[in-house]
Amino acid sequence: MTTPAVPAAPAAPATPEASEAFGALLREAMTGAERFGHRQHVRLTWLAVRRHGAGAALDLIADGILRTATAAGAPGKFHVTMTRAWVELVAHHVGDAPDSERHEGLEGRENHEASTCFKDFKESEGFEEFAARHPELLDKELLARHYRPGTLADERARTTWVEPDLAPFPRAVPVQPS
């Protein structure tokens, strides 16, 4: 049995501030939970995207998960493509896009003006409301709609970003590390 290669470090190395920010997000994501399951991963990502924007969230989440896996003696569990894919999917649903894209296609809808704006609504929305509006994000198998199993199992996907090979993500702009 071969040991998986340790993935390359995220683009932005951890700073004490980033480590503290990740720790605070992780503690908040774990509130009321007994274990760090898929729901907590999604909540952690949701918190990071809302507070830091998608690009910075990607750096923060990737670095934090890699450091956590390394500290647990399992650096090979960190998966670059899966990490970025989940950040992209959550960011899309949070609406982390420029205001012009956030409102695209809503002009003329009856409640568009009264909605005050997606950004204001989503900033006041809690995780439970967000999860209820986007239950697909709580499906651990969601990436199977976008990737072939062999693609995600490949070492290349574990160590570098690989675009979806079944269906593209619903996004205005791909998330890039900051």
Total of DSSP H or I helical runs spanning 4+ residues: 9
**Major sheet, described briefly?**
none
Tally of DSSP β-strands: 0
Order of helices and strands: HHHHHHHHH
Low-confidence stretches: 1-9, 96-121
* Anisotropy-based shape: globular
Give the proportion of residues in helices: 40-55%
Domain module count: 1
Radius of gyration: 17 Å
Mean pLDDT: 80
Q: What does this protein structure show overall?
A:
The chain is mostly helical and 178 residues long. It has one domain. Helices cover 51% and strands 0% of the residues. It contains nine helices and no strands. Helix 2 crosses helix 4. The longest helix has 18 residues. The chain is globular and about 35 Å long.
